[in-house]
Amino acid sequence: MENIDNVLNKLSKSKFRNGFRLTDKDKDYIKNKGMTKIKEHAYDFINQRLAPAYIKNDGKQTPVKGHPVFIAQPATATCCRSCLYKWHHISKGRCLAKKEIDYVVSLIIEWINIHK
């Protein structure tokens, strides 16, 4: 796993990944809930939707609106196991290790901090 700043720099060069933006509603939600709560939500979402070895609807399990974490996931290529493999070299077919979950959440939170 690479340094988060390096990864975010690479992702910012992708037209698709760079096209995601937080709405004013998302920014208000972040301000009202605080980053500690947003990070808790990120851990919950990643543990439920990305960490299992096999995901029934992989590639379609992450909405692209409705929560700041959902916006950050495709922006950081942490939306599905295929993107996680392609961009972060984290293999499919096994549960994510705690270290990998921490990395994914840190990446998401850093992206949100930059864009809020």
Structural descriptors:
single chain, 116 residues
In short:
59% of the residues lie in helices and 0% in strands. By secondary structure, it is mainly α.
State the secondary-structure class: mainly alpha
Low-confidence stretches: none
- Main sheet: strands, sense, barrel: none
Estimate nothing, just give the exact number of structural domains: 1
Q: Strand-and-helix sequence, N→C?
A: HHHHHH
What is the helix tally?
Answer: 6
Number of strands: 0
Quote the distance from N terminus to C terminus: 25 Å
Measured by DSSP, the beta-strand proportion falls in under 5%
Shape: globular
What is the helical fraction, as a range of percent?
55-70%
Alpha-carbon Rg, integer = 13 Å
Give the overall pLDDT as a whole number.
93
What can you see in these coordinates?
The chain has one domain. Helices cover 59% and strands 0% of the residues. α3 (35-49) crosses α6 (98-115) and α4 crosses α6. The two termini are 25 Å apart. The chain has helices at residues 4-12, 24-33, 35-49, 68-75, 81-88, 98-115. It is mostly helical and 116 residues long.
Q: How are the SSEs ordered, and which strands pair?
A:
Layout lengths: L3 H9 L11 H10 L1 H15 L18 H8 L5 H8 L9 H18 L1
Helix pairs in contact: 3-6, 4-6
